[in-house]
């Protein structure tokens, strides 16, 4: 297609980091969108992200602010969102710097109680230290 640009240097990787390590290569960027609240051992995943990134590489995580469990409803076994400031401290303990966050959007969703609610989503970015 004329005028359409594609990135030739990106690669999608499928790996279940909760069950296995990924050591094939190091990356310049890792991003996660609305996944982290499904991960049971967040600290373990953050450590794996740190190992997988090149020094100076970027991590970007978009996920839910802490909420009361209404986003997924009854039976959900993951996290009910996050306090980004606590997540920032965890990232710093795993070798990340320049950590910052901001609210980037909200998701409107009908909950189990048939109530339309908005759930805030933050973006936290960090750089893997040298």
Distance between the termini: 40 Å
Strand order of the largest sheet: 1-2-4-3
- Flag low-confidence runs: none
Q: Which of globular, elongated, flat, extended, rod-shaped describes the shape? A: globular
The structural domain count equals 1
CATH-scheme architecture: 3-Layer(aba) Sandwich
Structural class: alpha+beta
Strand and helix order: EHEHEE
Number of beta-strand segments: 4
CATH C-level class is: Alpha Beta
Tell me the number of helical segments per DSSP (H or I, 4 or more residues long): 2
- How much of the sequence lies in strands comes to 35-45%
Identify the CATH homologous superfamily. Answer: Vaccinia Virus protein VP39
Radius of gyration from the alpha-carbon trace, in angstroms: 16 Å
Tell me the CATH topology: Rossmann fold
Helical content stands at 10-25%
Average pLDDT reading: 92
Largest sheet: 4 strands, mixed
Question: What is the strand and helix layout of this fold?
Answer:
Elements: E1 27-33, H1 42-52, E2 53-64, H2 84-93, E3 96-110, E4 116-128
